[in-house]
Each structure stands twice: as structure tokens, then as C-alpha cells.
């Protein structure tokens, strides 16, 4: 489990095809700060990489590797990662840690496309478009995780929704590199997921 509060920006330094090229192993360089000195990179540790929960396979002082299945590559932005790609990093939540964002599982539901990016007062306004199957789960003033970042939805109009991102978040995440047409990993609010499932089950039950 995670909270959507990013603790560093990593960089993909190597990509090794696995399983006849369908799976992949990524080597990720970690930032030079105390948070990523080594405690979060032990063998078997879970790390959210741009919102996707991945397991550490090997690690060193300033790097770690993860292996990603073809399913994850096809359903997330990881399939477009290249050497040099900047990714948001967050270590898993520990009992007693502050939950400053919202509960994030690291299980990505799909991709959203960046429609527009505009400056609005002191923040940056992003408008995204969702796949039709995810749109019902997003509500104004609700929570959403984009590339692993916990954000509050401003408004929703059809398949589109907007968020405002403060300069601190821009600087300390990979949102600075986003451009219109780019895609981000989306994890809908866990509560919305289960409420929708319960309602659909009740409607289907005679």
C-alpha cells in the first residue's frame, strides 16, 4: 500500500527483454537523498514506480531492478518506458506512517491522456481524458492517483477531468516532463471501485 506522496524521481538506465521479449527487466537509478539510501530497496520490497507496485529483484547503493510482465506493460505506461525515462518513486507504507495523500494500492486501472496544460495563477492546470470504462469512477473533489501522485479532482466533464498542481509537486515529480498527447497511469480511488462493484452486484441480483 502507498499514499501517493512521491519521495523521489528515479531514472530508467537499462531495459532487458525477458520471456521472448514479452516481459522486461528495468534497472532504475534512485535519487541521491536519505530516503533512497537503501532501506526501501531490499530484496522483495514493494516500490511504486509511477504508480505501479513492483517488486525489487536486485539492488545496489543507487539502483534497483524490477521485472514486469507483458500484462503490466500492455495496461500501463511502462510499455513506453525507454532509457532515460523519469519515473516517480514511493516506498511502501509502514504501520504508523502518516497518510498524507490517500490509500493507493499500486494497481493501475488504465491510462489517461493529457489534453491540455495551462498556467493558472500560481499552479499548473492539467486536463486529462479517461477511457470510457473508468470515467464513472471519477468525481469532483474526489481522489485519484496519476503516475502514482495523489491528486484531488477539480471537475469532471464527460470523459475529461481537471486537476491543479502546485509548483512543489511539479518540481518533485515527473509531471514537469508531461506534454499534451502524453499518457499517465491512472488508479481510481479504492472506495469508488468497491462502491461501484457493490451497486452493480445489487442491480444484477434479482
What's the helix and strand layout?
Layout: E1 8-18, E2 23-29, E3 46-49, E4 52-60, E5 63-68, H1 70-75, E6 86-91, E7 110-120, E8 123-129, E9 143-146, E10 149-152, E11 155-157, E12 160-165, H2 167-171, E13 183-188, H3 190-204
Antiparallel strand pairs: 1-2, 1-6, 2-5, 3-4, 3-6, 4-5, 7-8, 7-13, 8-12, 9-10, 9-13, 11-12
What does this entry look like structurally?
With 206 residues, the protein is mainly beta. Helix content is 13%, strand content 41%. It is built from three helices and 13 strands, in the order βββββαβββββββαβα. It has helices at residues 70-75, 167-171, 190-204, and strands at residues 8-18, 23-29, 46-49, 52-60, 63-68, 86-91, 110-120, 123-129, 143-146, 149-152, 155-157, 160-165, 183-188. It has a seven-stranded antiparallel β-sheet with strand order 10-9-13-7-8-12-11. Strands 1-2-5-4-3-6 form a six-stranded antiparallel barrel. A hairpin with a 2-residue loop joins strand 3 (46-49) and strand 4 (52-60). The mean pLDDT is 91.
Amino acid at each position: 500500500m502507498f499514499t501517493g506522496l512521491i519521495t523521489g524521481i528515479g531514472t530508467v538506465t537499462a531495459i532487458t527483454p525477458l520471456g521472448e521479449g514479452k516481459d522486461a527487466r528495468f534497472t532504475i537509478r534512485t535519487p541521491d537523498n536519505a530516503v533512497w539510501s537503501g532501506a526501501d530497496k531490499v530484496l522483495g520490497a514493494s516500490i511504486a514506480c509511477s504508480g505501479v507496485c513492483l517488486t525489487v529483484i536486485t539492488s545496489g547503493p543507487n539502483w534497483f531492478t524490477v521485472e514486469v510482465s507483458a500484462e503490466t506493460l500492455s495496461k500501463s505506461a511502462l510499455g513506453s518506458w525507454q532509457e532515460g525515462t523519469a519515473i516517480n518513486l514511493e516506498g511502501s507504507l509502514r504501520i504508523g506512517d502518516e497518510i498524507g495523500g490517500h490509500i493507493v494500492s499500486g494497481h493501475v486501472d488504465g491510462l489517461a491522456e493529457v489534453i491540455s496544460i495551462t498556467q493558472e495563477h500560481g499552479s499548473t492546470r492539467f486536463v486529462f481524458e479517461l477511457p470510457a470504462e473508468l470515467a464513472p469512477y471519477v468525481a469532483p473533489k474526489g481522489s485519484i492517483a496519476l503516475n502514482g501522485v495523489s491528486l484531488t479532482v477539480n471537475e469532471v466533464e464527460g470523459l475529461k477531468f481537471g486537476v491543479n498542481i502546485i509548483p512543489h509537486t511539479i518540481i518533485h515529480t515527473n509531471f514537469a516532463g508531461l506534454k499534451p498527447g502524453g499518457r499517465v497511469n491512472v488508479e481510481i480511488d479504492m472506495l469508488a471501485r468497491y462502491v461501484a462493484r457493490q451497486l452493480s452486484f445489487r442491480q444484477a441480483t434479482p
